[in-house]
Amino acid sequence: MFSRIAPIWLTACHRSSTPIPVLARQTFLPVKPDDFSGLAWPTEEGLIVGTQTPFRATAVFDLSLVSMAGTVSRLPLPKDHACDVFEFGPKYNITDYQFPTLLPDGRVAIRRSCRATDAPPQIVALDPRTSAEEVIWESPTPFGQPGPSFWNPNLTRGISAISSGICGTVVWLTAGGVEGVPLWIEGGGIRWRLDSGLRGNASGDCNDQGRADWPAWSPDGKLIAFFGSPESTGQRDFARLDVPFHLYLMDAGELEPRVVMDDLLEPRSPVWSPDSKLLAFSVIRGPNQGVWLYEPAAERRIRVSRDKISWLAWSPKGNELAAITDEFDAETAKSHNRIVILDVTAPVG
User: Fold this and answer.
1) Model's pTM, two decimal places?
2) Any residues with CB less than 8 A from the CB of 346 and at least 6 apart, and which?
3) DSSP 3-state assignment of 277?
4) CATH superfamily, with its number, for domain 12-347
5) Quick one: pLDDT at residue 255?
6) Environment class of residue 186 by beta-carbon count within 10 Å: exposed (0-12), middle (13-18) or buried (19+)?
7) What does the longest C-alpha to C-alpha distance in the chain come to?
């Protein structure tokens, strides 16, 4: 896979760490814009995309298979009948399936939860070819529900974040439940320990805490990336959203994070390539918005898209990225999403 992307690196970087934008050729799938949330690309047959089914004044989160030709079909996922609702009309089931991510064994990790009961959330491994499910994690979550999760190769430990955007930190998912990550990160002359983000304070807010979010574990189990903002410590309420993040990288065995990119706003959806050599993510850095690729071995990065992206997924061959755009229609005053394929082997300038 990397040999296919090498021409972009040689053109863009010239063996330099200076980020030079080289935009990837992009193709929008012929799919009607919708409220898409979450993305995985487990097989060449198509994408697994988070979709929504209207339910009264809200919606049920489910998953759909989107082919490269643009056909959309809802995945036949099993429902927990404890989530059946009979109020205000016919029976309806509110089992939510959210945040698909690719597991090292080729299955898809999905968070399953039920809004009709107090049952704890689960992380299930879905076989995209057979729709067979296996529960790989289940636990009460007194700190809130985890977001997208990534796992080590033997699926005994996962990493996720419990975050509202304003408050949040990275956590381990283990057989014991949700565990804090006892790491210190530094930035802007401030040190902050990640697991302190799970503790409340007398004021019931997180203004005395930093922020950490969007972890991603490489498929080979060697590297973990995440975004962190020690400088959010002491900032209040919505003002915390304006405090930049750093991109941290660490060896999964040594757990010593180091900053590899800074001054980042609105980080989203870091995902590792299938061979664990490249990290793709969406951020705003100064005037530059879009999707970036980072190569840890050479400490090089390039920007391959100027679009505002909310979710990313690598193709099985590692030569393309699927992305969900985050767009706003001024006429209708509504947001919507489209699905675009970025060919990272074919720069357009």
Assistant:
1) 0.90
2) 24, 25
3) coil
4) TolB, C-terminal domain (2.120.10.30)
5) 95
6) middle
7) 64
